[in-house]
Amino acid sequence: MSVPSFGSSHLILWLNTCCQARRLLTFSNLKQSASSSTRASKRHTSSHRGACKPPVPANRIWRRWNRIPDNPSTRTSPASSHHFSVISYNILAKTLLKKNSWLYDRCDQSALNWPFRWSNLSQEIKSFNSDIICLQEVEGTDLEKDIRPYLESIGYVTHYKKRTGNLPDGVLIAVKTNNFEVLDVVPVNYFRAGDPLTDRENVGLICVVQMKSTDITICVCNTHLLYNPKRGDVKLVQLCTFLAEIDRVVKQHASKHMKLPAVVICGDFNSTPFSPIYEFVTAAKLVYNDLCMQELSGQGNGNYHPKLLPVPLLPDVLDIDKDCRFQEKDKSGRQQQQQTRGQAEQLDTIRHQVGEVKSCNDQHRGYEATTTQDEGITVDYIFYSSANQASVPPPSSTSDDDVSFTELTLKMRLSIPTSEEVARVGSIPNQIHPSDHLPVAARFTVNSHRQRQPQPKEPKQQRRARR
Fold first, then answer.
1. Contact 399, 344 (CB under 8 A)
2. pTM for the complete prediction?
3. Closest CA to 66 of 434, 362, 435, 372
4. What HEC string does the chain produce?
5. Rg from Cα positions in the chain
6. How far apart are CA 211 and CA 176, in angstroms?
7. Nearest residue to 409 via CA among 148, 121, 73
8. Which tens digit of pLDDT belongs to each residue from 49-68?
């Protein structure tokens, strides 16, 4: 910078003026910089609240709660609505981990021991603060030592069904005691001796619960179907058995209490969202005469000799008909079952009576994953179904009672990551994720309404007699 030719006094005044100008310029720059930083910070905060993700540790899988838009045709009144939340989680039994240790060779070995995993599991489960917890692969010894005492200490009552035989694990349903009362508990065994389709030791568990803030009832179900990817026939038979038990429990409760519960079905189904087994659950019908048993669950890799399902599928030892209903034990009931099976056009179709069943993540993507098996696939679900009039048992001709129906509306669901997002963290369990499965979770709004029972039609002979 060139200096003008001034006298000493003028030079000092000019320098002072330059200094003031520089200070003003510097202050202005600082203000602009601070303002820019503030705007950038606001933009970052706004983005963080929106779609952008904050930095995620390399070994953590990013997940978020997704809000479900209201459907105007099913919107409930806030003043009359009640809410509850559910989590379903396969927590990886320690005995099964040791038995299949080769599957976890690439995992951080320090993250595989049960005390470390249970510490993370307990904190993760607590963080959800769900009203209902459904767990699979709960080992009996760990249940008594760690799981049940902890869940009871934070306000839950627990019910457990161990796998039959000498197998170490089972399924558990835990319910918050300040929100729900357990009305009925029904364990479900899939094992039946004498048939290769029913000789596996998997189980299910059903709890009918009532909200303490109202008389609304919910049938909560939890199961873990057979893993074997090539035995979809066994899985389908187990599923039919479970759905038949659910149908029986719901009808018995409706007949006794004049309240028809909604149904929530949780579990590890060892079947993908694009499999015939998933289709059967959500469509309530499956035509299976040309289906291979290795392809039913969607887990097969194609390295097998195709084997078609037997027709009819359901073994007689189950006493379950093609509509997934238990047969009466009397002589006429058995005769009717034989007549139905003799109708060839109906032999290759099975149906269930639980109603319109939906998955909480009904927009399943082919590249999503709830487990690391098969390089990342979805096998864990929360299904739900509102009570429907078709499930009401026939009333007596003199009954004038109304039936209470329970309606569920899905409000929020926990996002399911892609298989790439799961692969990015490497093998799990790790220091953050304590199982080789990820939890699935959902929040519901629940309402009830009363409706007059449909009266049975009068036989034609009685109508003619009255004339």
1. no
2. 0.82
3. 362
4. CCCCCCCHHHHHHHHHHHHHHHHHHHHHHHHHHHHHHHHHHHHHHHHHHCCCCCCCCCCCCCCCEEECCCCCCCCCCCCCCEEEEEEEEECCCHHHHHHCHHHHCCCCHHHCCHHHHHHHHHHHHHHHCCCEEEEEEEEHHHHHHHHHHHHHHCCEEEEEEECCCCCCEEEEEEEECCCEEEEEEEEEECCCCCCCCCCCCCEEEEEEEEECCCCCEEEEEEEECCCCCCCHHHHHHHHHHHHHHHHHHHHHHHHHHCEECEEEEEEECCCCCCCHHHHHHHHCEEECCCCEHHHCCCCCCCCCCCCECCCCCCCHHHCECCCCCECCCCHHHHHHHHHHHCCHHHCCEEECCCCCCEECCCCCCCCECCECHHHCECCEEEEEECCCHHHCCCCCCCCCCEEEEEEEEEEEEECCCEHHHHHHCCCCCCCCCCCCECCEEEEEEEEEEEEECCCCCCCHHHHHHHC
5. 30
6. 10
7. 73
8. 444 555 657 789 989 999 99
Q: For the segment 180-196, what is each residue's pLDDT rounded down to a tens digit? A: 999 999 999 999 999 99
Question: Higher confidence at residue 33 or residue 144?
Answer: 144
- Find all residues with CB under 8 Å of 246, minimum gap 6, and list them: 206, 219, 221, 263, 265, 354
58: its two tokens? 């390399």
Backbone angles phi, psi at 251, to 5 degrees: -65, -40
Measured CA to CA, the distance from residue 27 to residue 25 in angstroms comes to 5
Q: What is the pLDDT of residues 316-353, one digit of tens each?
A: 999 999 999 998 765 554 445 444 444 544 789 999 99
> Using N-to-C axis directions, what is the helix angle for 232-257 and 276-283, rounded to 10°?
20
CB-based contact 370:438 (threshold 8 Å) = yes
